[in-house]
């Protein structure tokens, strides 16, 4: 009798654990393809303007490969506890993404309920959602990061540590967002601080969204800005030697909209990036008169220390041929201002592609892109910049699987 009670007790415990685990989801995405890129800079002493083509097996051309765990617990009264742990990796090499962080993509815990959701930890800001809904990044992935000011406008997604994020409940199609990243510096709340605001409204086939983000310098540690915003390491204007801890180094706005009618979906986005510290002159922001194709790569580069303002325009269309086949296209142009020069740089990129869904979890994609630069250096599409050459074309065929 006692043995039977012990067995029943163990079985009951196992049943309880299994029931609890039903609220936890293990998920992931693998994305890999074959890519061709021409005009990648291969300078030499005899040919300083030399270029060459490149073939490669890449990971994450459309979406970065990742694995994760997420869960929700019902606390009663309409309140729920939630968590999300997500790490990125490269399919072609197996290497971890985000500098080797185990859960570098997302690491949050939070509460949600009738008054919205509150999250603590590391994750992307609201601009990422605006970009996903209304820019070309959903259809062309990393291929558009270069023309988007080398991703300084956060279209490809950047993350902030030490973050507290609040989203309102969805009310008649509208959601509002506020995000704050703590610099965690004793004696100074502004050092390393980041701040974001956003809103999105949907009504049937129509949607419009807005996001704002700013980052402040942290302290210098090993030559790296210790700001809560991890995206600041990408911007030359956010190198600590260009300013003082607590100085604002990045300001970004993004506005986007879309409309769907029948098999067609039209979308567009505008983003603006300011690098206030690029105006401080000296060696960090050299004064230059005009663009010269044979000069070095410091002046007239997207997101460089001399690039104090950028406007990016991103327009596109999707057409659903069938439930499985979708055609995509977009045109992007970004315009650049440079410190101490009347020269206005310009990048123009054209994208065409298609996706074919074998199932809800597996699809094939293929697209081609051409990027041309005028009065500035091209950041390139993927795999390397073309150097002094003003044009680059990239083509990829990839497979994406979700689990």
TrEMBL record:
Keywords: Cell outer membrane, Ion transport, Membrane, Porin, Signal, Transmembrane, Transmembrane beta strand, Transport. Its main location: membrane. It is found in: Cell outer membrane. It is a multi-pass membrane protein. Residues 1-20 form the signal peptide. Pfam families: Porin_4. SUPFAM superfamilies: Porins (SSF56935). CDD domains: gram_neg_porins (cd00342). GO terms for cellular component: cell outer membrane; pore complex. Homotrimer. This is Gram-negative porin family protein. It comes from Collimonas arenae.
